[in-house]
Amino acid sequence: MLFIHSFSKFSKAEWEKKRMDKAIGYSFAIVGINITDLAYNLLVSGALKTHFYNIAPEAPTLSHFQQTFCYLMHEFHKFWIEEDPMDIMEFNRVREKFRKRIVKQLQNPDMALCPHFAASEGLINM
């Protein structure tokens, strides 16, 4: 349910543009579910505390979570392209490497996961 709600903020047009860059080589639904899981686990573990404080010091809302989801989807796509995996069988390796990269970024006290594309407009509270 959280994936569907967050996905609605990630515009189809934005995704279609990305698909034209290169054959993506993965199922959008599988990535969306995995990114939702990543965002949720980062939230539950407390890794997103600094991020949310930097973008919404008053009190983060579901919109801020959706912003984070959009950022992670966008960044995962770019990361997948950079990694240039041979096939879908490398998905777990790429996903884990991406997760470690995000966790490391979130250790920076000034970090704010702020997307800069059409689907994120109006979400950032800065």
TrEMBL record:
All residue ranges annotated as the ELMO domain in the record: 1-106
Molecular function (Gene Ontology), one example: GTPase activator activity
Pfam families referenced in this protein's UniProt entry, alphabetically: ELMO_CED12
Protein name as catalogued: ELMO domain containing 1
Species this protein is from: Rousettus aegyptiacus
Lineage summary: Eukaryota, Metazoa, Chordata, Craniata, Vertebrata
